[in-house]
Specification:
Number of helices: 7
Strand content: under 5%
Helix content: 40-55%
Number of strands: 4
Distance between the termini: 35 Å
Structural class: mainly alpha
Strand order of the largest sheet: 1-2
């Protein structure tokens, strides 16, 4: 990516023999299926980067070639972690005790977080899991939590959440 005589590079992780590369058009030469696929991929990426550039321009954002690359590669996003989101929610609930929440509700959420934290440590051998990538929190994770309640003492969680059999609290945290 070149912008204002500054360059930012990234790789497609594809190889093209030097004799089959056009430096002028920045594409693979020839009509082989492999070269056609590489050229389609290059066109797709160019279009994606142009879209990012147009969005920056519409939003009035000053940008560099490196920023275009980073947005394209997804490096501009910070990864949200489940227990971090859970703690933010609990902090919000704690600040509203006496107005919108009773102390017992806040205690239930703290207990819920503690049980989820134990599950993550036991099942994934991690301190937290990302929301939306890696072993992300999704219906599969929720099903695993439900299946492992007795093994991980998460059956207490149902009592904490007024006897609900499903793990609806996780949907709430992920959705917000």
């Amino acid at each position: 990516i070149a912008l204002d005589s500054k360059r930012a590079e990234c790789s497609l992780n594809r190889k093209v023999h030097i004799d089959l590369w056009s430096t002028r058009s920045q594409k693979a030469l020839g009509n082989s299926p492999e070269n056609q696929e590489i050229n389609r991929e290059i066109d797709f990426i160019k279009n994606k980067i142009y879209s990012i550039e147009q969005k920056f321009q519409r939003d009035g954002i000053v940008y560099s070639a490196a920023q275009l690359r980073d947005v394209y590669l997804g490096k501009d996003k910070t990864e949200k972690m489940l227990l971090e989101i859970f703690q933010e929610h609990n902090d919000k609930v704690n600040s509203l005790i006496g107005r919108d929440f009773a102390a017992g509700i806040a205690e239930r959420y703290r207990t819920c977080k503690k049980h989820v934290e134990g599950f993550i440590k036991e099942k994934y051998k991690k301190n937290d899991i990302p929301v939306g990538c890696g072993p992300s929190i999704n219906i599969t994770v929720i099903r695993k939590i439900e299946q492992n309640k007795t093994n991980l003492n998460l059956d207490k969680l149902n009592k904490v959440l007024n006897g609900q059999d499903d793990f609806k609290c996780l949907f709430f945290f992920v959705g917000n």
